[in-house]
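Worked problem 6 (solution included).
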Amino acid sequence: MTTPRSHAVTAPHRPWPLYRQCSGIALDLGSARTRAWISGRRSLLDVPTVTFPGDGVIHPIQRGTIVDTPGTAQMLDRLLGHHLPRFGRRLIVLTAPVLGGVAFRTEARTAVEVLRPHAVLTIPTARAVAMAADADLTRPLLVVDIGAHLTEVTLLTDGAVTDARHTALGISDLDSLTPPTQIADAVVAMVTTMLEQDHTTQTLDALQRGVLLAGGGALRPDLTYRLTRQLHAPVRPVPAPHTAAVRGAARLLEAARTHPSTTRTPEPTAHPH
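Solution. The predicted structure is:
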């Protein structure tokens, strides 16, 4: 399945000067873990993606899909509410599964309203990973993100998503009946299909250049070894792969906050006589 080029801005457009001096949050809503970074803090917040209605435990995000929007909002309020000033605008940069589409972005934007955002930007998870890894986005790049419940393979060209595949399978599924070979085989099958359906050389160029590996699966040497052997290409885990997405979102957040148009002094406006 081919994904059209993604647009980063999902909130109504506002000029850069309105972001001046706003607080900011980078947010990665995962099926198993939710990670957040608040501008001005030195550490990441990292909690299970769960909420607690009554005596039970609910997982509001499953396989990359928000299935309980109010529960997601409740979780975000519990995680971040007491860290935020009561008043003031804040910019939120939110990672989104590449194939999550409009549905994920819409539900996510509804959930983050509990954080009183001034604006919400979304960034595909694969691009956030590439930014965290300082990857050269002027050349085609394959990003494989093996999470707890979802595995994505994404082709980036000039930093934009030009093809993507996913499977509802992750490292939390591994057991005696689902060995690591099943994830590796699924990744290889997705890459093979991308190669077969690409009428350019972009996917092949990216594969020969090497695969960028992120997510909790990148912490497993057995998966890295199997993928390297089966793809016949270099496979490079990014540093701290389980937090790469939120760190990439934080980079975009800081770029937005320090954009020249947010810091320059406005020129006087000429008035007609």
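Discussion: The CA atoms of residues 18 and 205 lie 41 Å apart.
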